[in-house]
């Protein structure tokens, strides 16, 4: 895959997802000691970059495939993204969600018209349920990250970021920081940045370092994710295609802890006026540490989403407003 | 004054303030029963549209005037806006603030390098302090709203909004909703919308209806603002120039109460992922009622700013998350 796949995806999903703003915030620049260009995917449809890949993947199916139904398994933003894409293309969708999914996420998926099947509490159980449905119905499973259409779709966020920085400054970015879960967003970012030789930095929560460990081992390893605020960054394993792309392009990996993530989230809220979910604030947390290799002056930061429970907002504002 | 003044201001402040994004949020559209185009001035420099007018006004001074110093009086966003503008043009700034100003606002103004003079608790006392300083120093007072440069600068927000809607849809807005304090933002909006015959709707907090009462009386009246969450919308009187412009162009006025304002703020936070201060959410509160005269299909909503105390965020999220 290359940047051409991302460009083609951008053409195909134009008008179906938003071109999200790139936000500047001098107060955060000062804290980071660099110019931060914040790609606000929290302002994307369904509140996360996941809308891009899902819209692209569902859009590429032919009408017969769509009529047999769209399937996926997810506890988070991918469920809403697939539900939105299915609704857009008027296809029936069934989504396997965990029995302990928060009511607010279940309601969001239902509002988008998808049917929900509850299946255990692990990603393994959810995937099994989706495969079973596929065997029964001949529907198409939209994978959450390990698929070329998903990676190309996710890459459009980074493509827009670089385009906009170029349009506004006439120059390029010196580095891009990306939060890593299963690896959809970072694989897409790598395809785009490789073309311009822009270093890509991966950011994972401490204890959920599936990519860092896989890069160190030279092959994909399975991890048992530890507890983290960043509930969207807890894969047990990086995707295969994602790992192949990331291992060729990622410059460095960074681990951030819950205090840094919570503080970054509250700083985004109070200073940049953006509601970003903890997973979405992880890359900023790394940027705020400063000291990135090569001392990049102009840094792109992917804010991957903004879906967060109200009680979590209250809790984090209370904890971090004092040092925001 | 006309739209040409606003266009000229836009040329002059280009690059000194942000061109803020226009955000779409289907969930809010559904609640309003219309397409909402949200002009996100909470993402403006210093977190409010006030940066536009202040930058324009200070930028139009000649170097001698700037050297004698910039003065203003404000308890809120205008103080930060003038401090930023003075810093941008390397002019000394002194700002009269109330003795009971929140520490967070005092700190923000100081961070921008301005000197603060504390003067009583009323706008009258602050203005007197600024006039006294002017007599001593020959400095220039940057008025908070009642001045052509401020109105033209504020109008650039609406100009950008209409430009962007036209670029994205090929069409115009059917109505624009604007929160009203002293009248800077709405006077600017009127100049821009008059050119295109777009109806402008004014939104004030119940009990702070200086514009509505003045329009009814056919002349400016002085009010005693009642308590409201919208601390930026509590003028005792609309500006003279502002009233002259608004009375020629405003189609209708709307009064919103604290429950509506708080709920609109929390909906913006949880659904549109934007932190907007209560004053900034007032126009959305009116849009969410629906039933606007002429049933506009495509409505522009000015989100005027995003500077809000963390404890207020916690409190409002707790109160309104359930019905957001």
Oligomer: homodimer
What characteristic shape of chain A results from the CA principal axes?
globular
Strand content of chain A: 5-15%
SSE run of chain A: HEHEHHEHEHEHEHEHEHHEHHEH
Number of helices of chain A: 14
**Biggest chain pair contact, residues each?**
A-B, 27 and 27 residues
Structural class of chain A: alpha/beta
Q: What is the gyration radius of chain A calculated from CA atoms? A: 18 Å
Distance between the termini of chain A: 40 Å
Largest sheet geometry of chain A: 6 strands, mixed
Q: Helical residue percent of chain A?
A: 40-55%
* Average pLDDT over all residues of chain A: 96
Strand order of the largest sheet of chain A: 1-2-10-7-8-9
Uncertain runs of chain A are none
Overall strand count of chain A: 10
Topology of this structure?
Two copies of one chain form a homodimer.
Chain A: H1 3-13, E1 22-23, H2 26-32, E2 35-40, H3 50-59, H4 63-68, E3 70-73, H5 77-88, E4 93-97, H6 103-111, E5 115-118, H7 123-137, E6 140-141, H8 148-169, E7 175-179, H9 184-194, E8 200-205, H10 210-217, H11 240-249, E9 250-256, H12 258-270, H13 278-289, E10 298-303, H14 310-320
Parallel strand pairs in A: 2-10, 3-4, 3-6, 4-5, 7-8, 7-10, 8-9
Antiparallel strand pairs in A: 1-2
Helix pairs in contact in A: 1-8, 3-5, 3-8, 5-6, 8-9, 9-11, 12-13, 12-14
Architecture overview:
2 copies of one chain form a homodimer. By secondary structure, the first copy, chain A, is an alpha/beta fold. In chain A, β3, α5 (77-88) and β4 (93-97) form a beta-alpha-beta unit. The mean pLDDT of chain A is 96. Chain A is built from 14 helices and 10 strands.
């Amino acid at each position: 895959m290359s940047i051409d796949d991302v460009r083609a995806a951008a053409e195909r999903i134009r008008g179906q997802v938003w071109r999200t703003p790139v936000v500047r915030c001098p107060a955060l620049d000062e804290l980071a000691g660099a110019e931060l260009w914040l790609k606000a995917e929290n302002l994307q449809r369904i509140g996360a970059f996941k809308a891009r890949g899902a819209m692209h993947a569902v859009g590429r199916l032919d009408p017969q495939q769509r009529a047999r139904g769209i399937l996926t398994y997810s506890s988070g933003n991918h469920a809403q993204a697939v539900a939105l894409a299915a609704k857009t293309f008027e296809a029936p969708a069934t989504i396997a969600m965990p029995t302990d999914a928060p009511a607010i996420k279940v309601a969001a998926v239902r509002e988008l018209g998808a049917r929900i099947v509850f299946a255990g509490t692990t990603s393994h159980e959810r995937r099994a349920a989706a495969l079973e449905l596929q065997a029964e119905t001949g529907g198409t499973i939209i994978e959450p990250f390990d698929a070329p259409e998903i990676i190309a779709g996710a890459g459009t966020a980074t493509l827009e970021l670089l385009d906009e920085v170029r349009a506004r400054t006439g120059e390029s970015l010196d580095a891009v920081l990306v939060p890593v879960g299963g690896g959809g967003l970072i694989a897409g970012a790598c395809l785009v940045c490789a073309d311009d030789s822009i270093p890509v930095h991966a950011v994972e929560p401490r204890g959920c370092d599936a990519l860092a460990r896989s890069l160190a081992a030279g092959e994909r390893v399975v991890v048992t994710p530890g507890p983290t605020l960043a509930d969207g960054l807890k894969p047990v394993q990086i995707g295969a295609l994602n790992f192949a792309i990331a291992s060729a392009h990622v410059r460095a990996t960074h681990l951030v802890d819950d205090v840094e993530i919570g503080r970054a989230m509250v700083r985004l809220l109070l200073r940049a006026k953006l509601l970003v979910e903890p997973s979405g604030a992880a890359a900023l947390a790394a940027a705020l540490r400063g000291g990135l290799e090569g001392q990049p002056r102009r840094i792109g930061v992917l804010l991957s989403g903004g879906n967060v429970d109200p009680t979590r907002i209250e809790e984090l504002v209370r904890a971090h407003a004092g040092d925001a």
